[in-house]
Design a protein that fits this description.
This protein has 745 residues and is mainly β. Strands 3, 5, 6, 7, 8, 9, 10, 11 and 12 form a nine-stranded antiparallel β-sheet that branches. Strands 28, 29, 30, 31, 32, 33, 34, 35 and 36 form a nine-stranded mixed β-sheet that branches. The longest helix has 14 residues. It is rod-shaped. The N and C termini lie far apart (115 Å).
Length: 745
């Protein structure tokens, strides 16, 4: 890594006295300094100060980089040892911008893997601290010292702001840019390599010890001195607290018997820390290591920050010629367990929104920093699915959060959750189904007297559509009226209706899985056609007779009828009245009708008749010369059903015309042309009816039948009127049967 080779050369070139002189230059003594008599013999004791209560404190630094000559490893991993006690899962890092910060990073990496999961929160290894720093490369560990470009860091980190080279007093950020906020690494909080902030040269960390070998707890009394100094042990506490964890105690202490003092931290205390699952920082002259195990009576197993192996030393002895002088101990508060959460039934369910409910029944030992609900259309949703949460500080109790962006008519699985430093605790699965959207675009179109066509667009999320009908006004709700449709389609024909009646429809959606109805609905209305009584237009030749049919269309349960017809008796006279298919039709008599120009017809039956009927056939005789016409005015005097109730109806009048008929003028348009040929063609295939006058005009070959030959005859006439082209086989009007017809024009 950058600066490590330079540091090794510096260490080889400088003797202890030279190093002490350098340190005294870059770290001036405080006014309270009381120099130890043997300070010139201890290169790493930089000051002795009074704590204000008359107790003396040694101020020591650990500045050394890895040496060229090292103590051999005793194992490549703790698993190879037969130690009496050794901690499992302790990461082992090589030197990363300071031995003390590296040792602390290994300690907190161990806790990250053992109940304190927020010590390391980077992207590597799924957010779990790796067992070595090989992933990041030699000399790099973001838990020890953050570095731009490593572990996904896009901004500036510890190395970028504070590191120049081993032993340097240059902090690159100073007077050039704003330093980053202390964040994710031990070196930030321990003051490592920070000369401007804490008077530490690159790679160095400061520790404070009472000279009487008693523990000094969480010391911060020199942070306001000149120059300011930070105790690395206090910095470790700050790091743990920045990750959201509490600290029971943290202290530095010299070992028992150091400097001949019958007090201090003992091997037995060390074993007790290991047995309690707590690694211990082992402090030797100028260097910090991490104790991870032991063997009786006095063997310490440790990670020396120089490689990825396990090493050993004798308690109170030397390691690589560096005398064992003390320890740094930190005891974290109890690791939080996962919160316990119960998912409560979802409320306020609408088409695309709902309210998620939960209850934190146990915080797991610390207040939760997040709570919420997550949901999916599959069981067991988690925070990677859709979620709604509330950040803050929460104890036990019920909570609610809004759920949005849901799909209509969909079934969801929802779980409440809460988060503390131990992770996410989830509740049980609860299901709910959103409401479907109501149908849209409902239309109602009458199809005659008894049917109405309905169509709509099925609502989003709906499995079925219910259509309810009511006469006279819209249904108030789904039970108000007649249910005419309940299925998955989008169209229906409502039949069996009464003629001339108004019907009002509303449609709702239904979702099967959650048995939920839509709030919204669609509506439309239509009126059925009334029963129609009609007479056709009639064209007659002078002094000829012609039938006139009185028809009923769309009758429903018709049991009696009285119908009147008015005509101009100066144009035509009535000669006969014949009953239609319904049965006998009584009337006021032919003579009376011809005297008054008014015919009244009545009919009744014991049971109602439904359908289209020929009511009666009237025969008229033309009594004047053309052109003249008479209205045929119909009036429906009474229509009743089998229960005596009235039936809505309407009348369609006709016109009786006495015309001067023209040979070939089938459409009575006073000309003979291709349209007349088309009329005959349609007549021959049943698409058109022709009255007597039209049939007379249409029989152009006078064979007594109007057929396709006559249509061809007329068509030929339109292109060769006089037959000079040799196409027409005879003129249309030269036979005796044509007498009384006008010649074609």
């Amino acid at each position: 890594m950058s600066g490590s080779g330079t540091g090794a050369g510096f260490a080889r070139a400088c003797g202890a006295a030279l190093l002490l002189s350098l340190l005294l230059v870059v770290l001036p003594l405080s006014p309270q300094a009381l120099h130890a008599e043997d300070s010139t013999e201890d290169s790493f004791l930089i000051d002795v100060i009074d704590d204000g209560d008359g107790r003396l404190i040694d101020v020591r630094i650990c500045p050394l980089p890895p040496p060229d000559t090292r103590v051999p490893a005793v194992a490549s991993s703790l698993d190879e040892l037969t130690a009496e006690a050794a901690l499992s899962g302790v990461p082992v890092f090589d030197w990363c911008y300071g031995c003390s910060a590296t040792a602390a990073a290994m300690l907190f990496g161990y806790y990250d893997r053992n109940g304190y999961p927020d010590m390391y929160t980077g992207p590597t290894n799924g957010g779990v601290c790796p067992l070595d720093n090989g992933t990041w490369g030699y000399g790099e560990s973001p838990l020890s010292a953050t570095h731009q470009g490593y572990d996904g860091l896009s901004g500036l980190g510890h190395v970028d702001d504070y590191w120049q080279s081993i032993g340097s007093t240059v902090d690159p950020y100073y007077e050039d840019w704003t330093e980053h906020d202390y964040a994710d690494c031990t070196a930030d909080f321990m003051g490592t390599s920070q000369y401007v902030n804490w008077s530490n040269t690159d790679g160095a960390t400061t520790f404070f010890y009472y000279t009487d070998n008693t523990p000094i707890h969480d010391y911060s009394g020199s942070e306001g001195s000149t120059p300011p100094l930070r105790d690395g042990c206090h910095g470790m506490r700050l790091f743990a607290e920045s990750r959201g964890y509490s600290v029971v105690q943290n202290y530095n202490q010299k070992i028992y018997g150091y400097d001949g003092t019958p007090a201090g931290f003992t091997f037995v205390q060390y074993t007790q820390e290991i047995d309690a699952g707590r690694p211990v920082l082992i402090q030797v002259d100028g260097h910090t290591m991490l104790g991870v195990g032991y063997d009786e009576p006095d063997t310490v197993y440790l990670h020396n920050t120089w490689d990825h192996n396990v090493h050993e030393m004798t308690w109170g002895g030397e390691y690589n010629t560096m005398a064992h002088l003390g320890v740094t101990v930190i005891e974290l508060g109890p690791a939080a367990s996962l919160p316990e959460v119960m998912t409560v039934a979802t409320g306020g369910v609408e088409e695309t929104t709902a309210t998620g409910n939960g209850n934190i029944t146990s915080t797991g030992g610390e207040d939760c920093d997040t709570r919420g609900v997550c949901w999916s259309t599959s069981p067991g949703p988690d925070i990677n699915d859709s979620k709604s949460e509330s950040p803050g500080s929460f104890g036990t109790g019920a909570f609610s959060v809004p759920m949005t962006g849901l799909s209509e008519g969909a079934t969801y699985y929802v779980r409440a959750y809460a988060h503390n430093s131990s992770g996410y605790g989830y509740g049980n699965d609860v299901t709910f189904t959103t409401k479907p959207d109501g149908p849209t675009g409902l239309t109602a179109t009458a199809l005659g007297t008894t049917r109405i066509d309905l169509s709509w667009t099925v609502g989003a999320g709906a499995d079925r559509t219910l259509v309810v009908r009511k006469a006279g006004s819209y249904p108030v709700d789904r039970s108000d009226g007649d249910q005419v449709y309940d299925d998955s389609g989008s169209a229906f024909t409502d039949s069996g209706l009464s003629p001339g009646a108004g019907y009002y429809y509303r449609a709702w959606s239904f979702e099967e899985g959650g048995a939920r109805w839509s709030d919204g609905y669609a509506e439309a209305n239509a009126m059925t056609d009334p029963v129609t009584v009609s007479v056709p237009d009639v064209a007659m030749a002078p002094d000829s007779t012609a039938p006139v049919e009185v028809s009923i269309a769309g009758a429903v349960d018709l049991a009696s009828a009285t119908i009147s017809l008015d005509f101009n008796l100066l144009v035509a006279e009535l000669t006969a009245v014949e009953s239609g298919v319904l049965g006998e039709v009584s009337h006021n008599g032919v003579g009376d009708a011809n005297a008054t120009g008014h015919l009244t017809m009545s009919w009744s039956t014991g049971s109602g008749q439904t359908g289209d009927f020929l009511f009666a056939t009237l025969t008229f005789h033309a009594v004047v010369e053309p052109p003249v016409e008479s209205p045929l005015d119909l009036t429906v005097d009474a229509f009743s059903d089998s229960l005596g109730g009235p039936i809505p109806s309407t009348a369609e009048d006709g016109v009786l015309r006495v015309l001067g008929l023209m040979e070939g003028d089938v459409n009575l348009g006073l000309s003979t042309d291709i349209v007349d040929a088309m009329f005959i063609a349609q007549y021959t295939v049943g698409l058109r009816t022709l009255d007597a006058g039209q049939l007379l005009c249409g029989d152009t070959n006078d064979d007594g039948v109007v057929d396709i030959v006559d249509a061809m005859h007329i068509a030929q006439y339109t292109v060769d009127p006089d037959g000079s082209g040799g196409v027409l086989f005879m003129p249309l009007w030269q036979l005796p049967e044509d007498e009384g017809l006008l010649p074609p024009a």
